[in-house]
Amino acid sequence: MVVGVHRPTQLVIDRQALHDNIQAEVTRLASGCELFMVVKANGYGHGAVQVAQVAKEAGATGFCVAILDEALELRAAGFNEPILVLGVTEPEDAPLMAQQHISATVAATDWLVAADAYLALAQPTAPLQVHLGLDTGMGRIGFKTTTELTTAVSYLATHATLNFEGIFTHFATADSPDETYFKQQVAKWQTLTAVLKERPRYVHVSNSATSLWHAACNDNMVRFGVAGYGLNPSGTAIPAPYALKPALSLTSQLVHSKQVVAGESVGYGATYTAQQTEWVGTVPIGYADGYERRLQGFHVLVDGQVCEIIGRVCMDQLMIRLPHDYARGTRVTLIGRDGDHVITLQEMADYCQTIHYELACGFTSRLPRVYRH
Length: 373
Prior knowledge:
Pathway: Amino-acid biosynthesis; D-alanine biosynthesis; D-alanine from L-alanine: step 1/1. By secondary structure, the chain is an alpha/beta fold. Helices cover 28% and strands 26% of the residues. It has 11 helices and 20 strands. The strands form 3 sheets. Strands 1, 10, 11, 14, 15, 16, 17, 18, 19 and 20 form a 10-stranded mixed beta sheet that branches. Strands 8-7-6-5-4-3-2-9 form an 8-stranded parallel beta sheet. It has a two-stranded antiparallel sheet with strand order 12-13. Helix 5 links the parallel strand 4 and strand 5. 41% of the residues are buried.
């Protein structure tokens, strides 16, 4: 998809906000605990390479991604820090990962066996760094029993192509005020890791929510994700221990303004019909940019005033009700501040009955990212 540089719609990323969020967490960590910045899904829509650079400047010592291609993007951009792929990769890619010094998440011993065969053939100059994932209750990937875990650890110990670099789990409810299930997962983690005779270099259980509200669990590494972007992992359920600064705003301009009279309709399906004479503005953004179709009835800001989105959000455009006529080129704020009003990703997520992660990750590459500060 092309980037829409000849259109007045853009995501604006505040580098200083990113830096402040990450540095604030780095300063809270106990001595010997490292922060790996999670930059998967194009840095939660903010731009992976740009976020990684800011994170490094703010004190991050490594990165986490979801898929191998995201790790390779960081290597191609010149980052030499440790990178952990959190998702399961293909065993045949083990030699490439070893060559690029990219760490693999492993959730089953048969993956190790398959990867070892490929590594033995390729004979890379360094072993593949392995992090064993434990399923303590997330139900996604990982070893579930002490027998499975000890088998994997024994295999790692006897195969020089593989190095046991880390072990981790992921908490499903660290962002919930109810700690019942969280404590069950902690107990399962402790039972599983008790069979280890030797700890690997990295032991990590903390995502943003765990590090913010359960810092005692941090061990020697945290995977800092959504909070680094200034978004509260719990939504509004639990106050953050320090002020998070949202780093993303979304702006555009009016490209057209017209007057409609009572009885005239706007948009696909004619779902909005004017009850009186009113001004309607058109904004060049739509669901092809990741601006959700379900945001019909939500609002934007024009000249510091709240303006409702009327009619269905189109693929490339949307229409808003204006208090009066405005000139073409008038600024429209879809996320961020204009005057006394602010629109947050959290507000949008609440309106869409989803989470802010989904909306941030959904902004497509057609929207240019502009970096400031």
